[in-house]
Design goal:
The structure holds 2 protein chains of 2 kinds.
Chain A: E1 6-13, E2 17-21, E3 29-33, E4 43-45, E5 55-58, E6 61-63, E7 68-70, H1 115-118, H2 128-142, H3 148-161, H4 166-176, H5 182-193, H6 197-205, H7 211-225
Parallel strand pairs in A: 3-4
Antiparallel strand pairs in A: 1-2, 1-5, 2-3, 5-6, 6-7
Chain B: E1 2-8, H1 15-26, E2 31-38, H2 41-49, E3 63-69, H3 72-90, H4 106-110, E4 117-120, H5 124-136, E5 140-143, H6 150-163, E6 167-168, E7 174-177, E8 180-183, E9 190-197, H7 200-212, E10 217-222, H8 235-245, E11 252-257, H9 262-274, E12 279-283, H10 291-301, E13 311-312, E14 324-329, H11 332-346, E15 350-351, E16 371-374, H12 392-403, E17 407-415, H13 424-437, E18 442-447, H14 456-465, E19 469-471, H15 474-484
Parallel strand pairs in B: 4-5, 5-6, 9-10, 9-11, 11-12, 14-16, 14-17, 15-16, 17-18, 18-19
Antiparallel strand pairs in B: 1-3, 2-3, 7-8, 13-19
Helix pairs in contact in B: 1-3, 5-6, 7-10, 11-15, 12-13, 13-14
Classes of the chains: A alpha+beta, B alpha/beta.
Chain lengths: 232, 492
């Protein structure tokens, strides 16, 4: 927002948000989201959505054909850190089969997560495979999991050669740095620090059609398998 | 006459402090006008309307110091006073060594504090961002700010609905949550009545009438004046009903509002029937019971005994011949209710907030026949405090009405309680004395309780001593004012 003026191309639009491609590798997608939308880390939160068509961003403003929006407040994207995976049995938290339709299964082995097999897998604005991977990456960042380095490298390498949606690409880009939608961040904090896990789980599962279930699958994979290091 | 307008850089001071500085400097000897404010668009307009020449370009983070005085000496003294009061305001409050810095966002304040309710009162333009932050933090959120765009209200309330919290407002002036008053609120006894209010002063008046009859209030949840419109759809009202349904202290619920949109009314009606607790609707409108009549019904439903609100006679027994009724209000619902009652008797009333079929006043708010002004309206509170906090704009208008030969009777409200001026009756009493001395009767409705910081009894005494007719009920006050109105041919 604060940088030089750049043109934006509309990449996707839902009832509650519009996603623009920026051409900037550091922030590949800028989203305009109403408060009810799932808030990706690079989002302008607004009460109404801009009309279809190109827009421009820069110098603290966002504008399109009919109006100019100024930043009135910055918000800080959620980035949970310093968490410890709980020792309790987490299997009860897994999404049931019905809410996890289309979510790729992930091996329960320590080395079971394969970014190259997940990127771009599944239908939708953010394919379920990407959501699983994003959930795993955010959880790994939050718990300082040693696998993060490998997963991150594999994810970035795969993104260089595999096609997925622009929104998903942005989601993974931010997940590599530990940034998450608030629903995922709160779920991780609740599970690791103790809290109203049932409520946080319900809020996370309500994200998208299967996105919430997929993010949760990935996050639980990280928390569940971390202690299997060295296991045969 | 000497005047100056200075633009200063490099120091931000909040608007409430600056309003106090402006007030102090305005009151110093020889000063005819003063404005100390940040150079926002609004304040630049205000300075320009006060007759100051504006510099070619300013930025909103610069400070305007505009003073007009009778002579150079007074001007110099006034500028010294600006320095002194600003310096005093800028000195930081002492904090303990190693103490955490105070939080700068609602979310940061909420984390770890155990808070459950947030009160947002930033300027309307910015309130949305802070309110979203509060809802993000899982707080029930009262938005005191007015001038919040409708689209933002809708988006905010939908978001809060998903998050399972209540948004009170925007432009929610009054709430009482478990005995704690937020915004403008009277000190009322605890009791079984839960109030859901789309009207702030309407809720205050209802609660004070109940308190007078010995019936207390569990909570009063404001929802904002637009909540029951078709656009917003009653989202907050329904959430508030649900919260009161789950509240053990509440036996009976009252919804205070102007008549809602028909579809929203149906939805409310259905929700009310399923609530498991009696719900009374106090919907103010043409041909409907006034607030005092509603209060009487609530008291009997709650098993109490109705106490007629107090009333005392004033020193002037009849209106000035040929004059019109002039209503000067701080409370929006007080004004609305008075217009409803008066219109039945004397026909359309001119107002800045007219009823359907009423005439709109011009920009200067010049009186036009029977006239009532709501000084608390959004358009009149931009850049200045609400008249319940600072009544000077209304005092000036009352003095002007005394001079206006077409003014027959003056009707006004005096609202007490937390958040309101510490002596509203004292502020307006000299102007009332001037009016009654000139043969112009003044009728005052006092909204307050004996436990309010200003004390109902003391404030009523001050008004009575100034010669006003004093009523504890706005409807009674309006009827008295109408009865004093000298018969006009065009009233027949």
């Amino acid at each position: 927002m604060d940088g030089a003026e750049r043109p934006l191309e509309e990449a996707a639009r839902t009832r509650v948000s519009v996603h623009y491609e920026t051409g900037d590798p550091r922030v590949p997608v800028l989203t305009v989201a109403t408060p009810s939308a799932v808030r990706l880390p690079a989002s302008i939160v607004a009460s109404t959505l801009p009309p279809p068509g190109p827009a421009t961003v820069g110098s603290g403003r966002f504008w399109h054909e009919s109006s100019i929006w100024r930043v009135s407040r910055w918000w800080r994207p959620d980035r949970p850190v310093g968490l410890f995976p709980p020792c309790t049995d987490l299997s009860g938290l897994q999404a049931d089969d019905e809410s996890a339709v289309g979510v790729p299964e992930v091996s329960t082995a320590y080395d079971g997560l394969r970014p190259e097999r997940l990127v771009g897998r599944g239908p939708g604005l953010t394919p379920a495979g990407d959501d699983v991977l994003a959930g795993a990456l955010v959880a790994a960042h939050a718990t300082s999991d040693p696998r993060l380095r490998r997963w991150r490298a594999a994810t970035l390498a795969t993104l260089g050669s595999t096609t997925t949606t622009a929104v998903s690409r942005a989601l993974l880009h931010h997940a590599c740095d530990g940034y998450a939608a608030p629903e995922l961040a709160r779920f991780l904090v609740a599970v690791c620090n103790g809290g109203d896990v049932a409520a946080a789980r319900a809020r996370l599962l309500a994200v998208g059609h299967v996105s919430g279930a997929a993010l949760m699958t990935g996050a639980l994979h990280t928390l569940f398998t971390h202690r299997l290091e060295g296991a045969a | 006459m000497s005047k100056t307008l200075q633009v200063r850089r490099g120091g931000y001071v909040d608007s409430v402090t600056l309003m106090q500085v402006s007030k102090t400097v305005s009151a110093s000897p020889g000063v005819t006008a003063a404005l100390v404010a940040m150079a926002t668009e609004l304040n630049l307009d205000l300075a320009s309307s006060m007759g100051f020449d504006l510099p070619a370009s300013t930025a909103p983070n610069e400070m305007l110091v505009a003073v007009e005085a009778a002579d150079d000496d007074s001007l110099a003294q006034a500028l010294d006073l600006v320095e002194a009061t600003l310096r005093e305001a800028a000195s930081p409050a002492p904090t303990a060594f190693g103490a955490a810095p105070p939080p700068v966002t609602v979310g940061a304040a909420a984390r770890g504090s155990g808070a459950t309710v947030a009160l947002v009162s930033t300027p309307g333009e910015y309130a949305f961002a802070d309110a979203v932050d509060a809802v993000d933090a899982g707080l029930h959120t009262m938005v005191f700010s007015d001038n919040v765009p409708l689209a933002q209200e809708i988006a905010l309330k939908r978001y809060a609905e998903d998050a399972g919290v209540l948004v009170m407002g925007p432009d929610c002036g009054t709430a009482v949550v478990a005995g704690v008053g937020l915004g403008f609120a009277n000190v009322v006894r605890p009791g079984p009545v839960g109030v859901v209010a789309a009207s702030g002063t309407g809720a205050q008046h209802l609660m004070t009438l109940l308190d007078h009859a010995g019936v207390g209030v569990s909570h009063c949840l404001g929802v904002g004046g637009r909540d029951l419109s078709a656009d917003v759809g009653g989202v907050s009202t329904i959430r508030a009903l649900d919260l009161l349904a789950d509240d053990d202290a509440t036996d009976l619920v009252v919804v205070v509002s102007k008549p809602p949109d028909a579809e929203v009314a149906d939805r409310l009606e259905r929700r009310a029937q399923e609530l498991g607790k009696p719900v009374l609707f106090a919907l103010l409108g043409p041909g409907r019971p006034d607030l005092t009549a509603v209060a009487e019904r609530v008291v009997s439903s709650a098993g109490g005994t109705w106490q007629k609100p107090s009333s005392t006679r004033g020193s002037v027994e009849a209106g000035r011949p040929g004059g019109y009724l002039r209503g000067l209000f701080a409370g929006g619902t007080m004004c609305y209710e008075a217009m409803l009652l008066a219109a039945e008797q004397v026909g359309p009333i001119a107002s800045n907030t007219p009823l359907a079929g009423g005439r709109s006043l011009d920009e200067q708010l010049r009186s036009d026949g029977h006239t009532m002004i709501d000084f608390g309206d959004d358009r009149l509170t931009r850049g200045r405090p609400h008249p319940m906090i600072d009544g000077s704009i209304r005092v000036d208008r009352l003095r002007a009405e005394v001079e206006d030969a077409t003014t027959g009777v003056v009707l006004l409200d005096v609202v007490l309680g937390l958040g309101a001026s510490l002596d509203p009756a004292g502020e307006i009493a000299p102007a009332i004395s001037a009016a009654t001395a000139a043969g112009l009767p003044v009728v005052a409705a006092v909204v307050g309780t004996k436990d309010d910081p200003q004390s109902l009894e003391r404030q009523a005494d001050v008004l009575r001593d100034a010669g006003a007719w004093v009523h504890g009920s706005n409807a009674d006050a309006t009827r008295t004012a109408l009865s004093l109105l000298h018969d006009r041919e065009d009233n027949a």
